Amino acid sequence: MLANITRVKDPRIREYIMPSRIVWKSDNIDSKIESDHLLLENRDGQVLINPEEAVCFYNQGRPASILLDFGIELHGGVQISIWNCVRKNELLKTAKVRVRFGESAMEAMSDIGGETNATNDHAMRDQVLDISFLGANEIGCTGFRFVRIDLLEEDCMMQIKSIRAVFLHRGLEYKGSFKSSDPLLNRIWETGAYTVYLNMQDYLWDGIKRDRMIWIGDMHPETSTIQAVFGEHEIVPASLDYVRDRTELPEWMNTFPSYSAWWIIIQHDWYMQNGDLDYLKQQKGYLISLLDQLGEYIQEDGTNTAPNPFLDWPSSDNQEGVMAGIHALFTLAIEKGGNLCQYLGEKEAVSRCHQYEAKLRQQRPWHANSKQAAALLALANIMDKEDANKKVLAVDGSRGVSTFYGFYMLQARAEAGDIQGSLECIREYWGGMLKLGATTFWEDFNIQWLENASRIDELTPPGMVDVHGTYGDYCYEGYRHSLCHGWASGPTAWLSRYVLGIEIVEAGCKKVKINPQLGDLEWVEGQYPTPYGNISVKHVKQGNGSVHTTINAPVEIMIERH
After folding, report:
1. Which domain holds residue 548?
2. Which residues pair with 34 in a beta bridge?
3. Cβ pair 148, 108 in contact under 8 A
């Protein structure tokens, strides 16, 4: 019967998650909930005609309300299984409820608008609807950890069997791993991996509550994390191609020339990891045309005149720094794009890329005290790496770090030999989010937000700051701020690259250098996925400060020890 029906199989799986705790509930003469502890039991969503032990919501003039914590950030919705809704001994077939999702407890308690800027942007997270008796009602598709449910139907008693989160995800096995003598770093690696994992939905998104879209620049930390955790996965080329096919040249991806440059860099890094020449050949026409389009904006003296310059939001007010960073980003993209043209055997395109790069390298723009700019200038070998670290990146610790470009700041510091400073930055900055109850990393974070801040998994006590509703900037003020943003996952990829020491030397992981840098760690071990299987390494610091390394790698890979 389905033969003539157009069908697309959902690549995701569904799982039901029980609440881990009840954060708050209404409890007064007009509004109460009885037997709510049953919501924490492992109950299914199937109901029969006769109620068993029921959780009873009573609206006797005011909404009966409860705030549930599912223990971890999830993508999906909620299922409410109901036996009966009764008013004055009369059965109601439907009852009106309000369902609010929140990435923080306070967001789930909020109303749309106001100073805290709660929204329904990109996904409905606050809605009033009728739900049916004798059924399992599914509501919502968003990013959340907390759900508040209000029975709005007046003079009504509702008998509920279960309230479960419906968790939509890819069901993937983690191939890569990272464990060390520092539990905090281990947790940060896992949190970055999980942040990206949640964003691997139909395509690779940047956020599961807001920004449920493919942003090419934002993808680079995500694809770097995917390489370290999952290896090759179809979602990356599918997402790259989706935007490519909808960005006809001379348009720019996501309207930013910088994001078109990031597309080239991702293509390069993906090819180095996976060595899929057939896929690279599919990019040839667009890639070469895009490189030449970038070249059109490079003047003879090396200045770059591309429109709409953008790195990330926190750097936006420092336009001199933004222009310096864009200059470095174009240099990196054209250098890597030239390498791809070399792999494709396109000698003329390689020659043009060398010309574009030579023009750009005539200019050595000032970083303007922007850590974003200094990081890219160092990585592009335009600014001395040690100077960039000493004069800009290491100044004031984690102040001036951003969740997106923090990845490149860490890379530049590592390339300058400052592994210890990088580890301290990761612990302070990304660890700061964990201190506030994060289970995924956020769209933005400022180390100053820690002062007198309440955790996101509690209702803000008097005299403390609601970090989610109070802070944010640009397009992510208040509760609009995403608390699960893939561009913040950089430490996961960084720890695998610089601490485990996995450096890809030849395309397709045919040759890999192992160069562990432990900083103050006593030991580290982990796995890194390749097209031939996992590389396993263990590094143990010896009494004399040297590091003893054990490597187990597929026979197809040539291992170069540092």
Report:
1. 506-561
2. 56
3. yes
